[in-house]
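tokens incoming
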């Protein structure tokens, strides 16, 4: 019925927050690391605004797919009140119940998956930093 409105609303809020965070972010500090072959590489942490953009993309994509599914099933129409359930008070109660259960559940699931993505990204960043900071053993041929 209208469960897509909850992730869409969260996507709107996160989009605004992402733009505000990006405007306040400073350029991340780059770390120059010498590699074993005499060269060097530059390591940078991912900015938080980029990680928020992942959440934004996931929420917008999910909301778009759900909207398409509801249009496909005739629950969203191009005339007022746009949601077929909004025209009848008993259907409106069922719609609000679906939004508060299914819609909130989907939005929370997407946010939890994003949180797992953040944990994985932080672990990868830490591993890359510790691997690059290890000193290579001296290989003297004698």
């Amino acid at each position: 019925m209208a469960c897509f409105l909850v992730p869409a609303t969260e996507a709107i809020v996160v989009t605004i927050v992402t733009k505000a965070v990006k405007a306040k972010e400073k350029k991340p500090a780059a770390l120059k690391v010498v590699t074993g072959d005499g060269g060097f590489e530059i390591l940078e942490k991912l900015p938080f605004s980029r990680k928020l953009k992942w959440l934004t993309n996931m929420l917008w994509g999910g909301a778009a797919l759900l909207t398409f599914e509801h249009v496909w099933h005739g629950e969203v129409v191009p005339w007022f009140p746009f949601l077929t359930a909004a025209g009848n008070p008993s259907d409106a109660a069922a719609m609000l119940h679906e939004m508060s259960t299914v819609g909130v559940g989907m939005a929370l699931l997407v946010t939890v998956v994003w949180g797992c993505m953040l944990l994985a990204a932080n672990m990868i960043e830490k591993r890359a930093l510790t691997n690059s900071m290890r000193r290579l053993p001296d290989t003297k041929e004698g």
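note: Helices lie at 5-24, 48-72, 89-133.
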